[in-house]
């Protein structure tokens, strides 16, 4: 009997997602014409916690981000450098030991902060890297925080690790712009 209500709930979630998104494949959140386990988890999350996609990132740091997707945030990284906004995306990856890690990626220049998940909206920075430089990642401390509603992302390295257009990267405060899978 339990499986029936679970199946009905899942079917209802998939149908609701299809109706609200206008996608051809019910439950297909990234448009690849398949429904993955991660997409089903996202649908269940949205049903239980409310759909936050309109106002904020639907993903958190304590669950793997669906493949080929990321939340994007646009904001400033140094209040002394007006007009210097950048785009940052984040993905959460699950390690083989079951732990989660966050990668915050700046698109221009290409920089990656790696962090260990501490909670659903909090991660501890462990390193930063410019993968195209050929150098090894540099260890650094700091934090990455996602607001509870997913509307903002902050990156606070303990010391400015690099500069963009002559401005040291001090503190990123970005507003949610959407996901890569958003239409």
Descriptive overview:
This protein is α+β, with helices and mostly antiparallel strands. The chain folds into 2 domains: 2-49, no CATH class; 71-179, no CATH class. The protein is 18% helix and 36% strand. It is built from 2 helices and 11 strands. The protein has helices at 2-21, 37-49; strands at residues 71-76, 85-94, 100-106, 111-119, 122-129, 138-139, 142-146, 152-157, 163-164, 167-168, 172-179. The strands form 2 sheets. Strands 1-2-3-4-5-7-8-11 form an 8-stranded antiparallel beta barrel. A two-stranded antiparallel sheet has the order 9-10. A hairpin with an 8-residue loop joins strand 1 (71-76) and strand 2 (85-94). The radius of gyration is 18 Å and the shape is globular. It starts with a helix and ends with a strand. Residues 1-24 have low confidence and may be disordered.
Uncertain regions spanning at least 5 consecutive residues: 1-24
Q: Helical segment tally?
A: 2
Form type = globular
In terms of DSSP E residues, the strand content is 35-45%
Number of domains: 2
**Rounded radius of gyration (Å):** 18 Å
Strands side by side in the biggest sheet: 1-2-3-4-5-7-8-11
Q: How confident is the prediction overall: mean pLDDT?
A: 77
- The total count of strands amounts to 11
How would a textbook summarize the main sheet?
8 strands, antiparallel, barrel
Helix-strand pattern, N to C? HHEEEEEEEEEEE
User: Span from first to last CA?
Assistant: 38 Å
Q: What percentage of residues falls in helices of 4 or more residues?
A: 10-25%
Going by helix content, strand content and strand pairing, the class is alpha+beta
């Amino acid at each position: 009997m339990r499986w029936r209500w679970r199946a009905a709930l899942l079917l209802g979630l998939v149908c609701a997602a299809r109706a609200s998104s206008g996608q051809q494949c019910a439950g297909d959140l990234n448009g690849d014409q398949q429904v993955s386990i991660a997409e089903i988890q996202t649908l269940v999350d949205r049903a239980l916690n409310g759909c936050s996609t309109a106002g904020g990132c639907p993903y958190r740091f304590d669950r793997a981000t669906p493949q080929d997707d990321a939340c994007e945030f646009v904001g400033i990284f140094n209040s002394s450098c007006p007009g210097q906004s950048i785009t940052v995306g984040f993905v959460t990856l699950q390690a083989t030991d079951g732990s989660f890690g966050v990668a915050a990626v700046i698109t221009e220049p290409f920089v990656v902060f790696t962090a260990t998940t501490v909670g659903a909206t909090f991660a501890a920075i462990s390193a930063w890297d410019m993968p195209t430089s050929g150098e090894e990642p540099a260890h650094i401390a700091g934090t990455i925080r996602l607001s509870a509603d997913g509307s903002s992302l902050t990156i606070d390295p303990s010391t400015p690790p690099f500069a963009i257009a002559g401005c040291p990267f001090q503190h990123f405060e970005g507003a949610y712009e959407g996901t890569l899978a958003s239409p």
